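User: quick one, fold this
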Amino acid sequence: MSKRTGVLELAVLGLLHESPQHGYELRKRLNSMLGTFRAFSYGSLYPCLRDMLGRGWITEEGPAAAGTPALSGKRAKIVYRLTAEGKEHFQQLLTEIGPSAWEDDDQFGVHFAFFARTEAEVRMRILEGRRRRLEERLDYVRASLTRTRERLDSYTLELQRHGLESVEREVRWLNELISSERAGATPHAGESSPVSPTETTGGPSPAASPS
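Assistant:
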C-alpha cells in the first residue's frame, strides 16, 4: 500500500465512523475538512472504497436501506457504512503510528482531524514529533538563508522568509496545543486548525528541508 493510499484509507474510515455517506459526500468532506486532499479524485476514492469492501471494513447499501428516498429518474446513490471490523481497524490505525504521522504533512493533518478519538498518549507523541520535525526544518532554513542571502534576488528572498514564517507559526501553534494537552485541556471549536507549509504558500514550501 502506498503512503497516499494509506492516508486516504484512514481519512475515509474516520469520516464513515461519524456517519454513513455516499461517494460524492465523502469526496466533498475530504476536500472541505482535509485541505491536503484536494488532489484526490473519484479515480482514487472508489478503488479505495472497493478495497475496503473486499476487506469487510465497510458495507454498501441503496437509498432505501439508508432511509433516503430514491429520486425518480435519477441514479440511486450507494451509501457506505462502517462495519464493526472497520471500526476496530480505524482504532488500530489511530494507535499504531510511526514517524510518518508527524513527518508527513498529509498524515499529520488526517491524524489531527481525528484527535478526539485518539488516546492522549498518542496525541502527545504526534504533536511532540511534529514540533521536533519542524524545529529541525527551521534550523535548516535559517542556515540556508545565512549561506545564500547574498546570492538571492529580493523576490526569492521574500519567498524564503514567507516559508520560514509559516513554519515558525506552526511551531507556536504546536507549543500551545502541547501545553493544553499537558494541562488536560482541549481546543474549542473555531480555534486554529493545523497549517502545513504547503497550504500557506500554495505549493512546495520554501522552508522544506531536502529529502
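User: anything notable?
Assistant: The longest helix spans residues 154-183.
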